[in-house]
Every structure is written in structure tokens, then in C-alpha cells.
UniProtKB/TrEMBL annotation, chain B:
It comes from Streptomyces triticirhizae. Residues 5-235 form the ABC transporter domain. This is ABC-type xenobiotic transporter. PANTHER family: ABC TRANSPORTER ATP-BINDING PROTEIN, DOXORUBICIN RESISTANCE ATP-BINDING PROTEIN DRRA. It is a peripheral membrane protein. Its main location: membrane. Belongs to the ABC transporter superfamily. Drug exporter-1 (DrugE1) (TC 3.A.1.105) family. It is found in: Cell membrane. InterPro entries: AAA+_ATPase, ABC_transporter-like_ATP-bd, ABC_transporter-like_CS, ABC_transporter_ATP-binding, DrrA, DrrA1/2-like_C, P-loop_NTPase. The keyword Ubl conjugation does not apply. PROSITE patterns: ABC_TRANSPORTER_1, ABC_TRANSPORTER_2. Keywords: Antibiotic resistance, ATP-binding, Cell membrane, Membrane, Nucleotide-binding, Translocase, Transport. It is an enzyme of class 7 (translocase). The lineage of its organism: Bacteria, Bacillati, Actinomycetota, Actinomycetes, Kitasatosporales.
């Protein structure tokens, strides 16, 4: 029976079936990214979610802990702000996972998959939209810092732009972790819970908020290899001056490593799940 | 006969659960096929295979002659899917949802907008078009969902439990819209738990249970197999029970069943009902309940499988829906 031939695993393409071209797929991804951004416009709650929280964090850490940790509020702000931007970037990537999860559980994804569009467009659209949210939240934390008295160091604006690019590259890689969490979580709330139980320890056990020298040795060892520390160091270098080349290269290496592990893993889970 | 939908021997397993165990389905172009069965019977799985969302483990399916596996992209251009759960984006407005689909289908912005507005108009959503879907009623959302699957004017439409959870008025509206589409030449595959819905809309019905087809036929054929209707009479005064029992028994020509103060009897001749009313009136019996029930899905199931639909619950299959609500679950039927 030919029925068996047609269904045994991947079917051999006897006659070439039409596929979606790359350009068409990119256009579809952008349409879907547009949709994600329209969602933000309609749901100011989400916007305040990822705007108010970082502002609150910057204010709290600067004024509550700043004096005690660094001797003066201003010195602490200088030390902490680049790391705060890194931390915030990691949390914003969770929106990819949350949005994806909502689409999957509410059935919107089925609608997309029943359309003649590129199979990768929904994912690509999500991640692309996330980059816009990322840029916005980086700018936001930075501007709050400026208002509180943060000033760029010798590298100036080009250094800051470099930091933004580095952060976006890292965010792109880390989005794959969020995609995986979004695919595996039962509901969108659990994606948030993951954020609190996994991202908080990782960002706190770093040099973002305090220098590592007062920590026990074993913890220092972790802080030193923690990509959050390395990325924070790179951003400090780019925004304030100091060592740049090594932390930037190490950050890129981490981004690459994360993408190499999590992108194929997420795609595999994605295909299996559907 | 030219088939719009054709499937043979579909098998799908989820882990240890066999959701489909060799299902055959055919629908002629321009016809309405009703896929009838209880929750977990495999209806949604059939639709998901036909809509290219799931690959079957065995068997073959095609839409307009294109294989759903090897020619999935072509199939997707031909089908529209309206899921059991309204699969529109709740955070967007009605028009934005339709615009999004139109753009994804490759329409230019203006064209997509025109098509969206046309559909909103057609589905009575023009006024709500600029509201977020989250604020829509269940019926409005379902209509938008249907509109969303029609943006590309697909010749084949899958309606997966289109009225589950809707109130009677919204339900009738969905039926009316479906009829309009069919009149326009669209082939429809409809899954439902309700015999009356299949009866209203379908030309042919496939009854499935435990992932197997257990009956096929026109609505009339199936109802005939399930037996005729049931007459139920409840006298206001329980003292008159024996009179009611006698009258019903004489006219229905069977010994009626009595449960509490309710007298029921199966009847095949519709003329029995007015005759019963006349005789009750002559005997001066006042009743609080007088009903003629058509065969319910339960009774169809009972006659086909020997057990009621509620007990046919297969191991839970994802996406196959909320609890069934047809028939009378309290009916006492031996297992």
C-alpha cells in the first residue's frame, strides 16, 4: 500500500512541494513581530511591568544599599547601573517565553501553524519583537540612571552604543533559554516563576551589586565564571572605561555557547511538541 | 464523486494512548461532514491531522488531492481552521487580528484591511472591530475566530466544536453563518458532541468512539438506528399517574415506564403527541411536563455501542474539550 510509503517518517518529496521563500519568511516574521508590539500598545500593564520594575530596582538599590555598600550613593550608582542593565535584559528575555507559552496554551499557535507561512516565522517574530522591547528597557534604565546622576566615562556615546549592541547580541542568544522555558512550562505564570527561581540567584551571585572580594572563595569562583558578571564587567568597561577586550570576548563566547546549546534544543522540543 | 477531504486508516498514538485507531473519512466537495463523538473520541485529532498540525503515525490523508504530510504547504493554502478554543489573539482588536492573518497570507496592507472590514461586517462585528478581543462575548469571539479562518477564502473549512460553550442564541447564529458558507460552496468538516448540531448542518455523519469509526450515515439514518423519540408526561397530581399511564400506553402501544411521577414511552409516530394531549384534556388531567425528545447522542451511542456517551470517555486526549453536556447523564443504563 502506498499509504505506508507516504507516512513512514519524513516523506520523500517525490514532486517538489512549494516552500516559503526566505524573504517571504522574513516578511511574515516582521508581521508577527508587529503583532507582539501592538499587544504591548494595547496592554499598558505589560509595558509598566517591564518599565516600572527596573526603575524601582535602580531607585531601591541606589538609595537603600548604595551608601552602605560603596560609601556614597553616587559611587554605588556608577558601579551598579551597568550590571542592573544586564540583569534587566535577562528578565526581559522571559517575555519571549511567556508570549510563546500563551500562544501555545490558548490555541493561537495552531492558527498560525495552519496558515501557509514559514514554520520558523512565529518564533523568529517573537524574538525580533523582543529585541525592540530589549532596546527600550536598556534605554529606560540608562535614562533613569542619568536622571539620578550617572554619567558615561571616557568611552562616551560610542562605548554606550557598543554596550547596547553587546547586550542585544547576548539577549538574542539568551532568548533561546526563554523559548525552551516557554515551551516546557505548563502556563505563563510558571515562566515567571522560573525567572524568580533561576534568574535571581544567577544575577545576585555575580559582581552586579557588590564586588566579589568579600564572598567566600567557592562563591567567588562561581562569580568569576558567571556570564552575568562577565557581561556586567564588559558593560562597565564600555560605559565607564577600563578593561574591555577580554570581558567583551568572553561575553560573546558565552552568548555563542548558550545559543549553540539552547537553540537546537529549543527547536527540537518545539518540533516534538507540535 | 470528487473528494475535498479524504483520509484512510489514520492512526495516531500519544505515548501509550491510541487516539486514532484506523479512521477513514471522506467528504465530497461542497458538502458538510459531521464528525460526531464524545470527548476524547479522537475528533480533534482527526481535524489536527487534516489541518497539517499533526503527522499521523499511519494512514494517509489528503485535501483536494494534496497529501497533508508531503504537500502540507499546499494543503494550508486550501484550509481554514476554527478551533474548539477561540484561537484569536485576545490582546489585539478584531480588525487587527484579521489584518494580521491577511498580511501573513501575503495580502497588501490595504487589501488585508478591506478584507478584514468586509468580514467584520458580514459577521456582525463591525461595531466591535476596534475593541480588544478580550472584551468580546463568547459568541462574538467565536464569530471572529470563524472570520479569521476565512480571510484567505479557503475552499475547505474545519470547524472543531464551533458551538461548545455557547448560549442557544449564539449557537443558532453560528449555524446560520455556517449555512451561508456552505451555500457559497465551501466544504465543511464539523466536529461536535451534539447530534442536533450534526443534524442541523451535516449531509453525512461519521460517529467515532475510542479512535474508531463506529457508524456512518445521514442524520436520518443514524437517528433511525437509535430508535424514534421519547414521550414524557408528568401529571400535576400524582393521583392521576395511573390514568396518564393508561392513556400513554394505549396510544404508544407499549407499556410506559414510570419513574417517580414521570411517565415515559418510546414512540415512532409523531401523531401520538397531539393525540395524547387531546386524551389528557378529555380526562381533565393537568400536566406540569409534556415533552417529545428526539434521540439524543446518548441514545445513538447507546444503540451503537451498548453504553452511554458519558462512559465512553477515552484516556484524556489533549484538546478534546470540556465536559459533554448533552442528553441526561443521570440516565440509568447498565454497563
Amino acid at each position: 500500500m502506498s499509504a505506508q510509503a507516504a507516512t513512514g517518517g519524513r516523506s520523500p518529496e517525490a514532486e517538489p512541494a512549494p516552500r516559503v521563500g526566505l524573504l517571504e519568511g522574513v516578511r511574515q516574521s516582521l508581521t508577527l513581530a508587529w503583532r507582539t508590539l501592538v499587544q504591548v500598545r494595547h496592554n499598558p500593564f505589560e509595558l509598566s511591568d517591564f518599565s516600572i520594575q527596573p526603575i524601582m530596582f535602580v531607585l531601591l538599590f541606589t538609595y537603600v544599599f548604595g551608601g552602605a555598600i560603596a560609601g556614597s550613593v553616587h559611587d554605588y550608582l556608577r558601579f551598579m547601573l551597568p550590571g542592573m542593565i544586564v540583569m534587566n535584559m535577562l528578565f526581559v528575555t522571559l517575555y519571549v517565553g511567556q508570549g510563546l507559552n500563551t500562544d501555545l496554551t490558548r490555541g493561537f499557535f495552531d492558527r498560525l501553524r495552519s496558515l501557509p507561512i514559514a514554520r520558523w516565522a512565529p518564533l523568529a517574530g517573537r524574538i525580533a519583537a523582543d529585541q525592540v522591547k530589549q532596546a527600550w528597557s536598556i534605554l529606560l534604565v540608562f535614562v533613569v540612571g542619568l536622571i539620578l546622576g550617572f554619567r558615561l566615562g571616557p568611552p562616551g556615546v560610542p562605548g554606550m552604543l557598543g554596550a547596547v549592541v553587546l547586550l542585544l547580541v547576548f539577549a538574542l542568544a539568551f532568548s533561546w533559554v526563554a523559548v525552551l522555558v516557554g515551551l516546557l512550562a505548563k502556563d505563563a505564570e510558571r515562566v515567571q516563576i522560573f525567572g524568580f527561581t533561576a534568574l535571581f540567584p544567577i544575577t545576585f551571585v555575580s559582581n552586579v551589586f557588590v564586588p566579589a572580594d568579600t564572598m567566600p572563595g567557592w562563591l567567588q569562583a562561581f562569580v568569576d565564571i558567571n556570564p552575568v558578571s562577565i557581561l556586567a564587567e564588559a558593560c562597565r568597561g564600555l560605559m565607564l572605561g577600563g578593561a574591555v577586550a577580554t570581558p567583551v570576548l568572553k561575553s560573546l563566547a558565552w552568548a555563542l555557547a548558550i545559543a549553540v546549546v539552547f537553540a537546537p534544543l529549543s527547536v527540537w522540543v518545539f518540533k516534538r511538541k507540535l | 464523486m470528487e473528494h475535498a477531504i479524504w483520509a484512510e486508516g489514520l492512526v495516531k498514538r500519544f505515548g501509550g494512548t491510541t487516539a486514532l485507531d484506523g479512521v477513514d473519512v471522506q467528504a465530497a466537495k461542497g458538502s458538510v461532514l459531521g464528525l460526531l463523538g464524545p470527548n476524547g473520541a479522537g475528533k480533534t485529532t482527526v481535524v489536527r491531522v487534516l489541518a497539517t498540525l499533526l503527522r499521523p503515525d499511519a494512514g494517509r490523508a489528503s485535501v483536494h488531492g494534496y497529501d497533508v504530510c508531503s504537500d502540507a504547504h499546499r494543503v494550508r493554502r486550501l484550509v481554514g481552521l476554527t478551533g474548539q478554543y477561540a484561537s484569536v489573539d485576545e490582546q489585539l482588536t478584531g480588525i487587527e487580528n484579521l489584518l494580521l492573518i491577511g498580511r501573513l497570507l501575503g495580502m497588501a496592507r490595504g487589501e488585508a484591511r478591506r478584507r478584514g472590514e468586509e468580514l467584520l461586517e458580514q459577521f456582525g462585528l463591525a461595531d466591535a472591530g476596534h475593541q480588544a478581543v478580550g472584551a468580546y462575548s463568547g459568541g462574538m469571539r467565536r464569530r471572529l475566530d470563524l472570520a479569521a479562518s476565512l480571510v484567505g477564502r479557503p475552499p475547505v473549512l474545519f470547524l472543531d466544536e464551533p458551538t461548545t460553550g455557547l448560549d442557544p442564541r449564539a449557537r443558532t447564529e453560528m449555524w446560520e453563518l455556517t449555512r451561508q458558507l456552505v451555500a457559497g460552496g465551501t466544504t465543511v468538516l464539523l466536529t461536535t458532541q451534539y447530534l442536533d448540531e450534526a443534524d442541523e448542518l451535516a449531509d453525512d455523519i461519521v460517529v467515532i468512539d475510542h479512535g474508531r469509526v463506529i457508524a456512518t450515515g445521514t442524520p436520518q439514518e443514524l437517528k433511525a438506528r437509535a430508535g424514534g423519540s421519547t414521550l414524557a408526561v408528568r401529571p400535576e397530581d400524582a393521583e392521576r399517574l395511573s390514568t396518564v399511564r393508561r392513556i400513554v400506553g394505549e396510544l404508544a402501544r407499549v407499556e410506559p415506564e414510570v419513574q417517580g411521577a414521570l411517565v415515559t414511552a418510546p414512540i415512532t409516530d409523531p401523531a401520538v403527541l397531539p393525540a395524547v394531549v387531546r386524551r389528557l384534556d378529555e380526562a381533565d388531567v393537568r400536566v406540569t411536563e409534556l415533552a417529545l425528545r428526539g434521540a439524543s447522542l446518548n441514545e445513538v451511542f447507546l444503540s451503537l455501542t451498548g453504553r452511554p456517551a458519558e462512559e465512553v470517555e477515552a484516556a484524556s486526549e489533549e484538546g478534546d474539550g470540556e465536559a459533554g453536556r448533552q442528553g441526561d447523564p443521570s440516565e440509568e443504563v447498565p454497563r
